[in-house]
């Protein structure tokens, strides 16, 4: 990165924003982190610790926290936006007057806006008209990144400058940044996997086994890529870190907030209690509703998303739903090899009405 772009700004004072700020600082950049809470900002500046979201991890002292967007964004060549989807547009709108028109703008948020089914990079584009827009997504549990566990991620952008700048700013010996030009697919992968992490947490709490988890994750991948193809994305992207990679980590780890919400539901708490006890954002709760509605509208077959929706919002017991899903139509394993329509036709031709 050139000298004038030596400053990186992170918008958001949560766990992921804090972890990313620390990486850029480890790489020698001058990092400014913007957050709303003045006490938390003061603690980051004084103790180099984020006591609210990452209490057990040291932050690189080269990260300075600010509560004024004008100060946080001054002279910044790269802006990482780590604000939950509900507040994302609002924050970008507030930031707009202070953004350098040529700065690189990257969303790290794995969610969908209800109005218009917009992904966060689309909001960045709409609100700023910027030319250098990207998405960072992958199997990146914030606390593991903060403790410098070896991790990989994806920077996705149509713009080569955005890809290389982010690789330079964040790539290091514990954080490897792979490039993609399928921004939509990478971003959709990050948002969709949260749905299945809730289901996986629920299955674990219900005592379901490893076979079940493997089935759930693999069928989730089939469902995610089916939806993505219907939306115009490249299904091959789902073979990468932002697809299957993120699905594996989020469906397997108690460190995932979405998994934890599912686990709490599986233990018998209701949705409000599960969200309340988490105290942080679990994007999947909102995403499942939006994706389920979109799938119905577009005629995309998504039995897992539909089933989870029924459990979350229609009080169907999770165990009953799991049994019901097992009795759904016998279908194709990999539908890009043998299509679902072919399997259905084979059943019809053989006179088997259960196909
Ligand atoms: N935590 C993780 O392991 C990872 C999170 N992500 C994504 O990063 C995004 C941000 O998440 P985290 O940092 O984890 O969230 P978090 O729940 O740890 O913190 C969210 C932060 O955003 C702030 N915030 C919320 N609404 C705001 C608004 N309207 N204006 C200003 N600040 C606002 C909160 O005060 C808090 O500082 C999420 O969408 C998540 O999908 C992505 C990869 C890993
Ligand atoms: O996206 C994540 C890991 O890649 C974090 O997932 P949660 O939002 O479920 O914690």
UniProtKB/TrEMBL annotation:
One of its GO terms (biological process) is glycerophospholipid biosynthetic process. Its EC number is 1.1.1.94. Substrate binds at residues 110, 257-258. Residues 182-321 form the Glycerol-3-phosphate dehydrogenase NAD-dependent C-terminal domain. NADPH binds at residues 15-16, 36, 53, 110, 142, 257, 281, 283. Its main location: cytoplasm. The active site is at residue 193. NAD(+) binds at residues 12-17, 142, 257. Sn-glycerol 3-phosphate binds at residues 110, 138, 193, 246, 256-258. It catalyses: sn-glycerol 3-phosphate + NAD(+) = dihydroxyacetone phosphate + NADH + H(+); sn-glycerol 3-phosphate + NADP(+) = dihydroxyacetone phosphate + NADPH + H(+). It is found in: Cytoplasm. Residues 8-159 form the Glycerol-3-phosphate dehydrogenase NAD-dependent N-terminal domain. It is an enzyme of class 1 (oxidoreductase). Catalyzes the reduction of the glycolytic intermediate dihydroxyacetone phosphate (DHAP) to sn-glycerol 3-phosphate (G3P), the key precursor for phospholipid synthesis. Belongs to the NAD-dependent glycerol-3-phosphate dehydrogenase family. PANTHER family: GLYCEROL-3-PHOSPHATE DEHYDROGENASE (PTHR11728), GLYCEROL-3-PHOSPHATE DEHYDROGENASE [NAD(+)] 2, CHLOROPLASTIC (PTHR11728:SF1). This is Glycerol-3-phosphate dehydrogenase [NAD(P)+]. It comes from Halomonas elongata (strain ATCC 33173 / DSM 2581 / NBRC 15536 / NCIMB 2198 / 1H9).
């Amino acid at each position: 990165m050139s000298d004038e772009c030596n400053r990186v700004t992170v918008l958001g004072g949560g766990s992921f924003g804090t972890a990313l700020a620390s990486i850029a600082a480890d790489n020698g950049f001058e990092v400014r982190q913007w957050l709303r809470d003045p006490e938390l900002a003061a603690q980051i500046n004084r103790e180099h610790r984020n006591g609210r979201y990452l209490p057990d991890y040291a932050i690189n002292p080269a990260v300075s926290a600010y509560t004024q967007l004008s100060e946080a964004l001054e002279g910044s060549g790269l802006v990482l936006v780590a604000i939950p989807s509900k507040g994302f547009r609002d924050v970008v709108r507030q930031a707009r007057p202070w953004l350098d028109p040529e700065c690189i703008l990257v969303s790290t948020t794995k969610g969908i806006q209800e109005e218009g089914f917009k992904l966060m990079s689309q909001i960045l584009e709409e609100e700023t008209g910027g030319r250098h827009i990207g998405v960072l997504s992958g199997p990146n549990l914030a606390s593991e990144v903060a403790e410098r566990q070896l991790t990989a991620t994806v920077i996705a952008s149509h713009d080569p400058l955005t890809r290389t700048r982010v690789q330079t700013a964040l790539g290091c010996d514990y954080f490897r940044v792979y490039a993609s030009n399928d921004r939509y697919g990478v971003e959709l992968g990050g948002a969709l996997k949260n749905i299945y992490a809730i289901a996986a947490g629920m299955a674990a709490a219900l005592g379901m086994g490893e076979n079940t988890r493997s089935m759930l994750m693999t069928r989730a991948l089939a469902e995610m890529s089916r939806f993505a193809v219907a939306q115009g994305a490249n299904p091959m992207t789902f073979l990468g870190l932002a697809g299957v990679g993120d699905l594996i980590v989020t469906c397997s780890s108690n460190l995932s907030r979405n998994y934890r919400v599912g686990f709490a539901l599986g233990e018998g708490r209701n949705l409000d209690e599960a969200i309340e006890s988490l105290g942080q954002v679990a994007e999947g709760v909102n995403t499942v509703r939006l994706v389920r509605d979109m799938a119905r509208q577009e005629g995309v077959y998504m039995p897992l998303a539909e089933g989870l929706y029924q459990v979350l919002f229609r009080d169907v017991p999770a165990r009953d739903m799991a049994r019901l899903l097992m009795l759904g139509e016998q279908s194709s394993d990999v539908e890009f090899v043998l299509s679902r329509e072919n399997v259905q036709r084979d059943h019809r031709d053989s006179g088997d009405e259960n196909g």
